[in-house]
Design a protein that fits this description.
102 residues; alpha+beta; 2 helices
């Protein structure tokens, strides 16, 4: 609470993965309505981009009761199903990378 997006991103990444990040930037926001859910839900998702503070860091599963683990994926070969806000971002043609990956 009372944090800018960059501070919130750094805190959330640290809490959920144990990773320290830097060079945090806002990239986009998606508007997602889950009307088919048993309890309809509206999620506004803020997407940020950052670099690892130490490139040698590895993500930890800090919240095993909420997460099975962490993996890195090729942007053009993501696992399915995707988190709906990420799916919305992709369908809108957005890429979080400052330059297009080949």
């Amino acid at each position: 609470m009372n944090m800018c997006f960059e501070e919130c991103a750094a805190r959330e990444v640290k809490e959920e993965t144990g990773l320290d990040i830097k060079d945090i930037q806002f990239v986009t926001v998606t508007n997602n309505v889950f009307s088919e859910a048993a309890k309809p839900l509206h999620v506004v998702a803020v997407f940020m981009r950052a670099s690892l503070a130490d490139p040698e860091q590895l993500p930890q599963n800090v919240e095993p009761d909420k997460c099975y683990g962490w993996d890195w994926y090729d942007w053009k070969n993501l696992p399915q199903p995707l988190f709906r806000p990420l799916e919305t971002m992709l369908k809108n043609g957005f890429s979080p990378f400052p330059i297009e990956l080949n």
